[in-house]
Amino acid sequence: MATIQVYVALGANLANPTQQLDAAVAALCAIAVDDSLQVSSYYHSKPMGDVVQPDYVNAVAGFKTTLQPIDLLDALQAIEQQQGRVRLQHWGPRTLDLDLLLYGQQNISVPRLTVPHYGMKQRSFVLIPLAEITPTLTLPCGTSLESLISVTMRDELQKLIE
After folding, report:
1. How far apart are CA 24 and CA 11, in angstroms?
2. How many CA atoms lie within 13 A of 43 on its CB side?
3. pLDDT for residue 1
4. Domain containing residue 11: CATH number
5. I need a surface site. Which of 24, 85, 96, 111 has the fewest CB within 10 A?
6. Catalytic one among 71, 85, 154, 155?
7. Which residue segment(s) compose the domain that 17 sits in?
8. Which is the catalytic residue, given 22, 99, 123, 155?
């Protein structure tokens, strides 16, 4: 069965966010093949939108999988649900958010899934951790990851030192 390299953004700001990310990483091991799982450092970030809520803990995981895009989406959403994810409010607080950022070099646009993830080029909490685990990555559009990261973005995030 063919494998494909994927990248997933992880975020949490409820119910001990660091432990939520740790549990999500453990769950991702089950869908990663060949011990391919790489995980960035954890970062603190401010929430998006106007909803008053705690800061987030974010990371990015990269791994190889044999799952097709929708099957992978289903697996990610199952992990979110197992960790108590409830979708009540757009950009609201959450126990866990797993976003499929990249599925190889494919462009996917179906009702349930858009890849590359629609907001990844503007989000420091995605770009910085992604660059940490794959600094020479080029996106499907031909843009280098490093060219998207500004000094301001680097200043926005605080690496969680543990």
Report:
1. 10
2. 27
3. 73
4. 3.30.70.560
5. 111
6. 85
7. 4-159
8. 99
DSSP-H helix ranges across 17-137: 17-29, 69-82, 124-133
CA distances from 108 to 14, 28, 122 (A): 30, 21, 19
Alpha-carbon distance values, 124 to 31, 33, 121 (Å): 26, 28, 8
Band of residue 86 on the pLDDT scale cut at 50, 70, 90: low
| Residues 126, 48 contacting (CB under 8 angstroms) | no
Number of domains in the chain: 1
Residue with tokens 């060219």: 147
Given the residues 97, 112, 123, 155, the one annotated as active site: 97
Q: Is 99 part of the annotated catalytic residue set?
A: yes
CA distance 12 to 56: 5
- pLDDT, residue 85, reads 67
Look up 112 and say whether it is catalytic.
no
Asked whether the whole model's pTM tops 0.85, one would answer: yes
97 a catalytic residue = yes
Task: Check if 85 is active-site.
Answer: yes
Q: What is the pLDDT of residues 133-154, one digit of tens each?
A: 999 999 999 999 999 998 777 7
